[in-house]
């Protein structure tokens, strides 16, 4: 699966596959561009029509734009042959995120739009195959009130990357928390 935070190099080769074989993370070559499958679902074309179809939500690898496409199950799509190279996140400059190729030390710049939600989990120096959890510093947290601890009471907190998460009432500004990058949920306090 392609991680948005990895370098992607496009080789001009593609393999034709069925849309049913193009799962999440598959990179397709469409109209001369590279598109990653974000979501897909099968459905019947309509009442009295037994023809199955596949609806895909795609994201352009270079620009981050998204689009929906519907294919018949007997159509063929071009799966792009890509090479993923590990990179390290170095810093961001506004909406531009800078990465260093771990092998060649070349720099690659990606826009926040192309990174999508992944940008909220990037911290300086992180090895860039996004881990399952990330440690983040809380920069803002709503105050917790005494006696407001019954059940699973939560409040909003903002991390140093700008990610807003729900945290338990005992989390304060300056605390370091562990966040699940797949769901964006609080895991624990460090």
CATH architecture of the largest domain: Roll
Number of strands: 14
Query: Which band does the percent of strand residues land in?
Result: over 45%
Distance between the termini: 29 Å
Low-confidence stretches: 1-7
**Cα radius of gyration in angstroms:** 20 Å
Major sheet details: 6 strands, antiparallel
Topology:
Layout: E1 7-17, E2 27-30, E3 33-46, E4 49-60, E5 66-72, E6 77-85, E7 87-93, E8 96-101, E9 107-111, H1 112-115, E10 133-141, E11 154-159, E12 164-168, E13 176-180, E14 186-189
Antiparallel strand pairs: 1-6, 2-3, 2-6, 3-4, 4-5, 7-8, 8-9, 10-11, 10-13, 11-12, 13-14
Characterization of the model:
With 190 residues, this protein is an all-beta fold. The chain folds into 3 domains: 77 residues, SH3 type barrels; 46 residues, Beta Barrel (OB fold (Dihydrolipoamide Acetyltransferase, E2P)), CATH 2.40.50; 56 residues, OB fold (Dihydrolipoamide Acetyltransferase, E2P) (Beta Barrel), CATH 2.40.50. The protein is built from 1 helix and 14 strands. The strands form 3 sheets. The protein has a 6-stranded antiparallel β-sheet with strand order 1-6-2-3-4-5, with no helix packed on it. A 5-stranded antiparallel β-sheet has the order 12-11-10-13-14, with no helix packed on it. Strands 7-8-9 form a 3-stranded antiparallel β-sheet. Strand 8 and strand 9 form a beta hairpin.
Please summarize what this structure is.
The protein has 190 residues and is mainly β.
């Amino acid at each position: 699966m392609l991680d948005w935070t990895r370098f992607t190099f496009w080789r001009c080769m593609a393999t034709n596959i069925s849309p049913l074989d193009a799962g999440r993370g598959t990179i397709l070559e469409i109209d001369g561009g590279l598109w990653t499958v974000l979501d897909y679902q099968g459905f019947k074309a309509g009442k009295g029509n037994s023809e199955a179809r596949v609806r895909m939500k795609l994201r352009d690898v270079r620009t981050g734009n998204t689009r929906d496409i519907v294919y018949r199950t007997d159509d063929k799509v071009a799966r792009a042959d890509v090479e993923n190279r590990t990179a390290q996140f170095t810093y961001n400059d506004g909406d531009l995120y800078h990465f260093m190729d771990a092998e060649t030390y070349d720099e690659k710049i990606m826009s926040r739009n192309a990174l999508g939600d992944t940008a909220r989990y990037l911290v300086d120096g992180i090895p860039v195959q996004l881990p399952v959890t990330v440690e983040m510093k809380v920069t803002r947290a709503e105050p917790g009130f005494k006696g407001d601890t019954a059940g699973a009471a939560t409040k909003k907190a903002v991390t140093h990357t700008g990610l807003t998460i729900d945290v338990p009432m005992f989390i304060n500004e300056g605390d370091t928390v562990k966040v699940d990058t797949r769901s964006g949920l609080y895991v624990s306090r460090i």
